[in-house]
Design a protein that fits this description.
The protein is mostly helical. It has 21 helices and six strands. Strands 1-2-3 form a three-stranded mixed beta sheet. Strands 4-5-6 form a three-stranded mixed beta sheet. The chain is elongated.
Length: 446
């Protein structure tokens, strides 16, 4: 669904809600996919959201809930009565339970597990052996798998009955379930049906370790030129597969998480989260920002006498801070993306620093001339123009270098640079800019 179309649906739906009518639900659920329905629900205030969700077809309620962000789905679970929840989780499968386990209460989780058959319980237990940032936790446990001794004509008969999405290979294992290789499905149709499938195996087929990072695995699948890759444990036992559709979902999730983290927010935060919860989530980074602001103010206070005598410096201080901030954030964004994609290493860090230094020097001189001329003409002081121009050059260069060093250092310390990099960078550029500007003003204008 396009963004504009979704906005129209939300407007229409809310108008129906205001009129006390939700008879449009069936039309909407037939016209839109699960992820679109989840986005629609997340865009509704809580009361309307619960009412809309309750009128969805019973077969869609659970899948839509699993598609929603944690905060949004948790709000619905807390709002509906116990009888509805007990009925809802009566036939929960392992994959859906994995999606919802973080938002379910312990009694609901135990009840859902108790109602599962042995196969679903085993699948859930297998996933729980791995952390939720590992591919083994999220892989599909129903790939097309056949023993190596199986005849090709038997495999072809089986394929006519079973064909999951994102599947162009049959995975081949030995009698104990250990990985042997893969066979392209198209090769089976022209082969002698009496042959064993092991005679067509691609033994160099790429694979994933179950303990690999989920986002690194998503990148590997996306770059592999394969529709799905097998997921193996440390001993080579096939436990599932990771397909291209899931890989793209994970890449989109990572991108969203980085965008939200740059503002100090969780990607699961709901548009209509309770006020106190949203305030609590954001208060930490506001507090950190306040401390860094006081630090910058302290440096400004060191030049109080200068500011009292040359008022123009106080007027122009925001210009210096702003130019350094935007220059640093441009470099920071570039480096955070490079780190996320694994493009930055010790080998290319020095040429990258050289390049960003030159970019900072060029832009610093360019905008120093422009700002220096404007300031000199404005305050009728070419000395002031020269001071602010010099400060601009120093701040833009330092901002560009800080935009590299800060995320690289945070990454080495296992701290997400998308989450805290911008706060540290702003502090650095403010302090460098103010000290350079006010220091030069003290030396040359007093």
């Amino acid at each position: 669904m396009q963004t504009s179309e979704r906005q129209e649906v939300i407007d229409d739906l809310l108008s129906k809600v205001d009129q006390g009518s939700l008879d449009v639900v069936q039309d909407i659920e037939q016209a839109h996919s699960l992820d679109s329905l989840a986005l629609l629900l997340e865009a509704l205030p809580l009361t309307d959201r619960v009412g809309f969700w309750e009128q969805l077809s019973s077969s869609l309620q659970l899948p839509v809930l699993a598609e929603m962000r944690d905060d949004a789905s948790e709000a619905i679970i807390r709002a509906v009565d116990d009888d509805q929840l007990h009925a809802l989780f009566a036939n929960l499968d392992a994959d859906t339970l994995l999606e919802l386990q973080d938002v379910l209460t312990e009694p609901l989780l135990e009840e859902a597990l108790g109602r599962m058959d042995s196969e679903q319980k085993q699948r859930y237990a297998s996933a729980q052996q791995y952390a939720d940032n590992q591919v083994g936790h999220w892989c599909d446990h129903q790939p097309l798998v056949v023993p190596a001794k199986t005849k090709i004509n038997v495999v072809l008969r089986w394929l006519r009955r079973v064909m999951p999405k994102y599947c162009d290979h049959v995975f081949v294992v030995d009698s104990r379930g250990f990985w042997v290789g893969a066979v392209p499905i198209h090769q089976l149709f022209g082969a002698d049906g009496r042959l064993k499938i092991s005679e067509l195996v691609r033994d160099q087929f790429p694979s994933l370790n179950a303990r690999d990072d989920i986002y690194a695995s998503a990148d590997k699948v996306a770059n592999s030129e394969e529709i799905a890759l097998p997921v193996l444990d440390e001993g080579g036992l096939l436990i599932g597969r990771f397909d291209l559709g899931t890989a793209y979902e994970m890449q989109a999730e990572r991108a969203e998480a980085q965008i939200m983290a740059s503002a100090g927010l969780d990607e699961d935060e709901d548009l209509f989260s309770p006020v106190m919860k949203s305030a609590r989530n954001r208060a930490l980074w506001l507090g950190i920002n306040l401390m860094t602001a006081f630090l910058a103010s302290w440096f400004i206070g060191l030049f109080e006498a200068t500011l009292q005598q040359v008022v123009a410096l106080a007027v122009l201080m925001p210009v210096v801070a702003s130019m350094g901030g935007i220059a640093g954030s441009q470099t920071l964004t570039l480096i955070v993306r490079g780190l996320a994609l694994g493009q930055i290493s010790k080998a290319n860090l020095k040429p990258l620093l050289t390049k960003e230094f030159k970019v900072g020097l060029f832009n610093g001189i360019l905008w120093a001339v422009v700002i220096g001329v404007i300031a000199g003409y404005w305050f009728d002081s070419w000395g002031l123009g020269a001071v602010i121009g010099s400060a601009i050059v120093a701040n833009i260069i330092s901002a560009a270098l800080a935009g590299i060093f800060i995320p690289v250092l945070l990454n080495k310390l296992k701290i997400d640079p998308a989450l805290s990099g911008s706060v540290i960078l702003t502090t650095v550029t403010d302090i460098v800019g103010f000290v350079a500007f006010l220091g030069l003003g003290t030396l040359f204008l007093l």
